[in-house]
Structure formats: C-alpha cells, structure tokens
Amino acid sequence: MSPSSQRHPTAPVDGHGAPPTPAWPERRPARTVGPAARHGRAWSGAGTVAAFVLCSAVLVLVGVWLAGWLGPETLFVVGLLALVPLGICAAGLWWVDRWDPEPKSALGLAVVWGAGASVVLTLLVSEAVTMPMAVLAPAADAELLGAVVQAPLVEELAKGLGVLLVFFVAWSHFDGPIDGIVYGGAVGAGFAFTENILYFSGAFAQGGSEALTVFVMRGLLSPFAHVLFTAWTGFALGLAASRGARGRWPLYFLLGLVPAIAGHFLWNGGLALLFQDFWSFYVLLQMPLFACAVAAVWMLRRAERRLTEQRLGDYRDAGWFTDEEVEMLATGPGRRAAAAWARRYGAGGLMRDFAGSAARLAAVRHRILRGHGVDAARAEETRLLTLVLRQRQQLLAQVGAPRSGGA
After folding, report:
1. Model confidence over 240-261: pLDDT tens digits?
2. pLDDT digits (tens, 9 = 90+) for 358-395
3. CA 232, 237, 240 angle in degrees (round to 5)?
4. Distance separating alpha carbons of residues 259 and 231, to the nearest angstrom
5. Residues 219, 87: contact at Cβ < 8 Å?
6. For residues 295 and 183, what is the distance between their CA atoms, to the nearest angstrom?
7. What is the 3 state secondary structure string of 172-214?
8. Which of 54, 116, 117, 253 is placed for a possible disulfide with 59 were both Cys, Cβ 3.0 to 4.6 Å?
9. Whole-angstrom distance, CA of residue 236 vs CA of residue 257
10. Both ends of the chain: CA-CA distance in Å?
C-alpha cells in the first residue's frame, strides 16, 4: 500500500463518533545506528543522572546550612513561601516547553544546579570580587555596587555554568534556542527559589508587613526575573546547537552572558539609577521587558512549529509519513486532536513520545539541510527514524489498531 493512497486521520475532527483507525505504512531505515552514536547517547543519559545526583547532594548541603543558620521552623515557613514563585515559573516554562518537552532528568538537573551549586559558587566568588571592587571604588556605596555590578556578574556566571553543564551532558535533547531558553529558565528558577528563601527569611524577622511586602514584590510581581536573565545564556547555546557549532560553545556562551548580565544590571540598578519609585520602575521597565520576552518566545515557538511542518513534509514526500500524520504531528490542532484520541485508549504518553520524536527528527533534518554537522546529524536521523517507527507500532498495539505494512 503506498502512503499516498492512504487516508487515515487519527482523530475525528469534529469530536463526534468513534475515531477512525490509523493505517500507517511501515518503512525501514536504510542503515542502523553505529556504536559510537549509541555509546554517546548512553553516556549522555548516564552523565545527566550522575550530574543530577551530585548537584542534589550539594543542594542538600545548602539546605542543612540554611536550617542551621535560619532555624528549621523558619526555613520550613519561608521555603513554603518560596515554592509559590517557583510554581509560577514552572508553569511558565511548561508553556514554553509544550511543543517538544525536555526530559525530566535534564530539567531536574537544571533546577537543582540553580538552587544549590550556583548559590554556593555565588557565595564563594562574591568574596573574591568584593575586595578588588572596594579597592577600585572605595567611595562607592558598597550595597549599590554589589547589587548592580557584583550580583549580575557573579550570579549570571554561576547560573550560566549550570546551563553549560546541561548543554554537555544532555546534548541529545539540547538542540535549539527554545530548549536553551527552557534549561536556562529552569536554572534561573532554581536559583530564585533559594534566593527567595534568604530574602523572605530576612523580611520574616522584621515583621508581618515587611514580610508581606517582600513576598508580593519578589514572589508575585517579579517571579520571572532570574528566569529571563539566564534564558539568554541558554538561548545562545541553543543557537550553537541548532547551527551545528557546538565546538564554538565558548563564543556562544559569552554572547549569551552579555545580555544576561546587562538585563540583570538593568533590573537591579533601574530603581536606584533611573527611576524615583518602585511602581514607575515596575510599569515602565519591568513589565515591558517581560512582555517583550513573552512575545519573543511566542514567535520562536511559532517558527519551531513551521519548521517542524516543513521538515516532516520532506519525510512525507519520501514516504515516511502521510499528509494526515504531518498534520497530526506538526500543527497545534492536529496534536490536540491526536492527543484526545490517544487518551481514550490510555495511550496519551505514547502519543506524546511519538510527537516529541518527530519534532526532534525535524530539527535534525533542518541541520542536515543547512550543512551543520552532517555526519553526526545523519546518524541521529537514522536513530530517530527507527525510534519513530517503534513508537508508531507501540501506539498501534496500545489502541488495538491493525498493522498495515509496505516494504
């Protein structure tokens, strides 16, 4: 049966009646994946887990230190408060990451690095930066200098190293700007969680009104600050991955740090240097910056969807997918309809995996067409085609659909 002769929408468009049965063709890849590629992916998965365990251990030590400094009761209360902005950030990152979700292990690594290791590095390096700053600018306001110079430099470098760690150990899933934004945002959210504990505990000691003010300002009005800063570093490294320029990561890393540090500087110093009161600072600077960031991410997501549809169209023309499959895997309405159909049979997870693999396949195809890392990309393409076939058959088996094959 030729792909062009099949018509098989995977879910009813109007939502009524029983879903039609898919009749997907089976195509076998021309070659298998080499040992080097398999070992590389195994190393990536093992490296992610190992790094997560080590960073989690550091986070536990940070928690023990905080409990000893603040007291267990205070830490418990302010920790619960700090979970509120962390939850807001997690919801925002979930929205960004919906099209091609990143693995939970890599996201967990990003969060625990931000909440633990980056805080430790910040505390250690800050002392080394404070001394030369005091010598060079002895008359400067130490608190202001720390907020607008030291904090942006040290904190963004510490967080950026976490994004770089994910870039290396979870390389098979870090392949574009959106991925970088998600990982950078996750590191920033983790860092903000621990930082909020410190701020909330200080305000908590001063009384109810001060605690409420700090919680509202940091936890509700500007929970995404660190997410936005570190997302720049992730975005730049994602560009390196999408352009097949992983070997030039130092350049892209520095290019990402520059706007991250500049944004942090502007955020911390805006109220002291540019505005007279908090609300003018918030309305005229913070809100427009946040709105621009949301608009930029929205446009990147639209571009990613269009790219997925175009590149899966190449595989459709070669007989790997049909028109209905491309619509199902590469458009928002198609994905929603397919997900609803799969959930009726308890196959929602299989459908998500199938769609995610297809999205990564499209990204790899784009790199091949642009001539970036072609040899490695072709090996990854073969692996993903094999994976897509297996996930397709698992999905068919789950819903009880008959298999249809062609050579």
Report:
1. 988 888 889 999 999 999 999 9
2. 988 998 898 888 877 778 788 889 999 999 989 988 98
3. 135
4. 10
5. no
6. 19
7. HHCCCHHHHHHHHHHHHHHHHHHHHHHHHHHHHHHCHHHHHHH
8. 116
9. 9
10. 9
Which residues, at least 6 apart from 88, have a Cβ–Cβ distance to it below 8 Å? 220, 223, 224
- Tell me: the pLDDT tens digits for 215-242? 999 999 999 999 999 999 999 999 998 8
Do 47 and 104 meet the contact criterion of CB atoms below 8 Å apart?
no
Taking the CB of residue 225, how many other CB atoms lie within 10 A of it? 22
- Among candidate residues 200, 193, 210, 183, the one with its CA nearest the CA of residue 85: 193
Which amino acid belongs to residue 29? P
Which tokens sit at 57? 């251990």
Q: Has this prediction a pTM greater than 0.70?
A: yes
The one-letter amino acid code at 90 reads A
Q: Which helix (H) or strand (E) covers residue 111, if one does?
A: helix 104-112
The structure tokens listed for 323 are: 């028109």
Contact status, residue 195 vs residue 158, Cβ threshold 8 Å: no
Backbone angles phi, psi at 65, to 5 degrees: -60, -45
- DSSP state for residue 348 in the 8-state scheme: H
Distance, CA of 320 to CA of 181 (rounded, Å): 31
